[in-house]
Design brief:
Blueprint lengths: L1 H13 L17 H19 L4 E5 L13 H9 L4 E5 L7 H5 L2 E2 L3 H8 L3 H34 L2 H4 L3 H64 L1 H6 L4 E4 L16 E6 L2 E6 L38
Parallel strand pairs: 1-2, 2-3
Antiparallel strand pairs: 4-5, 5-6
Length: 310
């Protein structure tokens, strides 16, 4: 009972709102070990539903025989398999049991166990106060740094002289235009010279090509004139065509009474065939008299010219 009262008093003193769940079991005697093990198993299974954060396994001091239940294997297994953290404070500070060795943490006294699990409100208040002070100082420092950066930015020439943003590009543009104006004549003069030279060379080449072509045309014209039909006619030759303009190459190409045209160098002569010169067909019966020869008159364009046959 004294150990239980120490735990309750210490917990409420350190944190008034702390809730404690008291599970009363026998802590010595023949039936103590099974009851302790059963209670630990129930708390392990129902601890989450009950909202239990940790377990204090404790009892007051006594002889080794009085504390022997906490040395039993069944209690040690229950402590080891418990899902909740267990702080063991059994007997006096000099007493040591197997359950304490298996527990998550061992404390010398029940008061120390309560102090280990229950936070001290005053200490927490002090910590909160310190943290609030550090947070306040951090915010002030960050605010000062932000103000300094803002002041430095506001002093930049972008904000003090915004027209400078336009002056510098304008100066660079003016300088570039000046350099371009100076460099342009020097760049254009060689190009102009090269173009003029190219035009002159092209003109000479074209003139040479035209002269050569003219000479070739004249040579071909002279050749055509030398071998042309007119020059042949001028040398005394003629050619004869029928009424359709077909060239006559043999006496077999004409018949008696056919109109023909003879082309000379200075004109044409139209004639009518009187005797084509063809051999007459062999008669079936011998003629009694020699056939009478047909005579024709040459009709010329010039009435004073005699006929071909006298």
């Amino acid at each position: 009972a004294a150990a239980l009262q120490d735990v309750i008093n210490t917990a409420h003193r350190r944190w008034a709102g702390c809730e404690l769940l008291h599970v009363d079991v026998r802590v010595q005697g023949e039936h103590a070990a099974p009851e302790i093990a059963r209670a630990l198993r129930q708390l392990s299974e129902q601890g989450e539903a009950l909202g239990i954060d940790a377990i204090i396994l404790t009892r007051g001091g006594g002889s080794i025989e009085d504390l022997w239940a906490f040395n039993e294997r069944i209690v040690a297994d229950a402590v080891f398999n418990c899902r909740l953290p267990i702080v063991a404070a059994i007997g006096h500070e000099t007493d040591t049991t197997v359950a304490e060795l298996v527990a998550d943490m061992r404390c010398a006294t029940p008061t120390q166990a309560a102090m280990t699990l229950v936070p001290d409100r005053k200490a927490l208040d002090h910590q909160v106060t310190q943290m609030a002070g550090r947070l306040r100082m951090s915010l002030q420092r960050q605010s000062q740094m932000a103000n300094q950066r803002l002041t430095a930015i506001s002093r930049h020439r972008i904000f003090t002289r915004p027209q400078a943003l336009l002056e510098m590009p304008q100066q660079r543009l003016t300088h570039a235009q000046h350099r371009m104006t100076q460099a342009l004549p020097g760049r254009l003069a060689p190009a102009t010279t090269r173009v003029s030279q190219a035009v002159a060379r092209l003109s000479r080449v074209m003139q040479r090509r035209v002269t050569q072509a003219d000479q070739q045309v004249k040579a071909m014209s002279r050749t055509l004139q030398a071998v042309g039909p007119k020059r042949v006619l001028e040398r005394g030759y003629t050619y004869t065509t029928d009424s359709n303009g077909k060239l006559l190459r043999s006496v077999n190409d004409v018949t008696d009474g056919q109109s023909i045209t003879t082309v000379l160098a200075d004109g044409k002569v139209q004639s009518v065939v009187g005797d084509s010169g063809q051999k007459p067909p062999t008669p079936k019966a011998a003629p009694t008299s020699k056939p009478r020869k047909r005579r024709s008159k040459l009709k010329a364009q010039d009435g004073d010219q005699p006929g071909l046959f006298g």
